[in-house]
């Protein structure tokens, strides 16, 4: 699944013991999502010079806290990583501390910048801002977590979420200049201020996912 540029035994451990847990989460945080975040994180290693094994493990654990309440999943995930004694086979105590902080810092709504380049990498990789992916994940999350809402209320939730997170006034922040996310975010913002086109997109995805 993942390039063998990372330590092969670490990859084997992650793929057999960590990644399968994502099958228990909603579609917006499933195995497809974590695999995408891993690949995007590894791509950023080339431009940042970060340790590839640390980046790989951080990306793999970044949403593992979805096993608990979503609102604190970044904190829970950091705790799970820090307490996983199996990681001591590959990483020092200091490296594990940095990795824990990176998982804690990856959330888009965080009020502070990530404390290390590792937090910035996973935060950037987690922001898959390709518009069609953002729109589908938003619909999927609404259907999975608010099944009682009808189409119109799902549409309202969809618009509010996009505005709160991705608009020019939204809380999302990008940490690595020149990434693909900058271009995708600009495209997202153009669509967010076009309600007719946004509604067409929503209806199409809703009909497929509902």
List keywords for this structure.
mainly alpha, 10 helices, 0% strand
Q: What report would you give on this structure?
A:
The protein is an all-alpha fold and 210 residues long. The protein is built from ten helices and no strands. The two termini are 30 Å apart. The mean pLDDT is 92.
Structural Rg: 17 Å
Broad shape = globular
Strand content: under 5%
Low-confidence stretches: none
Estimate percent helicity: 55-70%
Structural class call reads mainly alpha
- Helical run tally: 10
Question: How would you state the average pLDDT, rounded?
Answer: 92
The SSE string, one letter per element, is HHHHHHHHHH
Give the N-to-C terminal Cα separation. 30 Å
Largest sheet geometry: none
**Total beta strand runs:** 0
Secondary-structure map with pairings?
Layout: H1 8-18, H2 31-48, H3 52-61, H4 73-83, H5 93-105, H6 117-126, H7 131-145, H8 151-166, H9 180-192, H10 195-209
Helix pairs in contact: 1-3, 2-3, 2-6, 3-5, 3-6, 4-5, 5-6, 7-8, 7-10, 8-9, 8-10
Give a quick precis of the structure.
The protein is mostly helical and 210 residues long.
């Amino acid at each position: 699944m993942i390039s063998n540029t990372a330590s092969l035994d670490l990859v084997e451990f992650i793929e057999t013991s960590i990644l399968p847990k994502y099958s228990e989460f909603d579609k917006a945080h499933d195995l497809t999502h974590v695999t995408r975040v891993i690949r995007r994180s590894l791509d950023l290693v080339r431009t940042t010079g970060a340790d590839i094994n640390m980046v790989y493990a951080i990306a793999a654990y970044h949403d593992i806290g979805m096993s608990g309440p979503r609102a604190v999943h970044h904190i829970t995930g950091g705790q799970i990583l820090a307490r996983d004694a199996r990681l001591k086979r590959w990483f020092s105590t200091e490296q594990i501390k940095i990795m824990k902080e990176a998982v804690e810092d990856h959330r888009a709504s965080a009020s502070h910048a990530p404390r290390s380049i590792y937090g910035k990498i996973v935060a950037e990789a987690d922001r898959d801002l390709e518009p069609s992916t953002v729109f589908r994940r938003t619909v999927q999350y609404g259907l999975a977590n608010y099944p009682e809402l009808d189409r119109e209320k799902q549409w309202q939730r969809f618009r509010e979420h996009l505005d709160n997170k991705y608009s020019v006034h939204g809380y999302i922040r990008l940490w690595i200049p020149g990434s693909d996310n900058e271009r995708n975010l600009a495209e997202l913002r153009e669509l967010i201020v076009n309600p007719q086109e946004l509604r067409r997109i929503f209806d199409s995805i809703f009909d497929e996912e509902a």
